[in-house]
Write a structure and sequence with these properties.
Two copies of one chain form a homodimer. By secondary structure, the first copy, chain A, is mainly α. Chain A folds into two domains: 98 residues, Orthogonal Bundle (Arc Repressor Mutant, subunit A), CATH 1.10.10; 68 residues. The first copy, chain A, is built from seven helices and two strands, in the order H-H-H-E-E-H-H-H-H. In chain A, strands 1-2 form a two-stranded antiparallel sheet. The first copy, chain A, is elongated. The two termini of chain A are 31 Å apart. The structure holds a DNA duplex (28 and 28 nucleotides). Chains A, B: This is PadR family transcriptional regulator. Chains A, B: Pfam families: PadR, Vir_act_alpha_C.
Chain lengths: 175, 175
DNA sequence: AAGTTCATGTAACCAGTTACATGATTGT
DNA sequence: ACAATCATGTAACTGGTTACATGAACTT
């Protein structure tokens, strides 16, 4: 994950590790955080793997600027075009960088993700039906209020994502 | 985290590791998953720490039943009563077990969490104002659509949580 | 002069997952 | 007989975080 955060942020241009962390905090910081303990080793790894070039500045502060190589750029765009998956909110990170993606692939991936979302919503709805049926037969059903509420959270969560996705698929404006 | 999942699930009564995993999958499985590679070592640790007792069944299948000790029960309830925090969705796990918590503490913790949520919503709203102001001055603002959309996701997300929390604070029924 | 921000880095730790290994029991 | 499910466990790995260590430059 951290590797793609770095590559993606560097699509904007040269940056130092410090700058990358700042940028992440100010943009996707709500959902993704990075620590120097993972960031600097990642940058080193990416340079060794030919994804980035490292440029020392003589601006005294020992600052290093990283830049994408063509390989790095290709690797990032390859990752970006892969289907959106729910794992660890990776889809949110991908969509954050979606301005870089080919519009046709973008549309396709967003619609597929919406399709899956709808399936999930239907499934939770079905489970909810069963559960509330079972619950109705219990005399102490009040004891399960909070357990059930978490299922309800799931439903609301997916419905929120659905509405949001539909909005961005249509590229509607934000009020 | 896994420790409290185990303790919480065992509040219902004796269970095997296998049972715990099943129960987790069928309840909070949408948001929390556990693997045997973390579950069995956790159970071992909890027994060693005096939180659980282990009982071998001679029912051939080598099944072991785990049961909360008074220490384990106390430790769980202590954790459960601590303030709700956004970290790694731990709050969702706590609320799942909230039927076990003293109603006064429960109400207090839920309301504090709602208060924080409102602060977050206000803050994102403010950031959004600034960003859309800056964006309006750009000629290529279309290039930032998806980056901005992730900020909007954040807002929707918190608003969803807010509505959900308000519902459970009032203990309103689910339709 | 003191405090904050800029800037890089490492070592120890942590909370898990994945893949593997094993074997009994139940259902078809 | 074969597959699925029940049942436990470990070793290697992964993807990080925390705490520490260092020091220059800017701000007040």
């Amino acid at each position: 994950m951290i590797d793609y955060i770095c590559l993606g942020m560097l699509m904007q241009g040269k940056m130092s590790g410090y700058d990358i962390k700042k940028t992440v905090e100010q943009s996707v910081g709500l959902f993704f955080t990075i620590s120097y303990g993972s960031l600097y080793p990642a940058l080193k790894r990416l340079v060794e793997g030919g994804m980035l070039t490292e440029e020392e500045t003589n601006n005294s502060k020992n600052k290093k600027l990283y830049q994408l190589t063509e390989t790095g750029r290709g690797s990032f765009l390859q990752w970006l075009g892969e289907p959106l998956q729910s794992n660890r909110r990776e889809y949110l990170l991908k969509i954050f960088f979606y301005d870089c993606l080919d519009p046709a692939i973008r549309k396709n991936n967003l619609e597929n993700f919406l399709f899956e979302l709808n399936r999930n919503i239907a499934q939770i709805g079905a489970v909810q039906q069963i559960v509330s049926g079972q619950l109705a037969q219990l005399e102490n059903k009040d004891d399960y209020y909070y357990r059930v509420s978490v299922m309800h959270y799931g439903l609301r969560f997916y419905q929120m994502e659905k509405a949001w996705l539909e909005q961005i698929i249509e590229k509607r404006d934000y009020e």
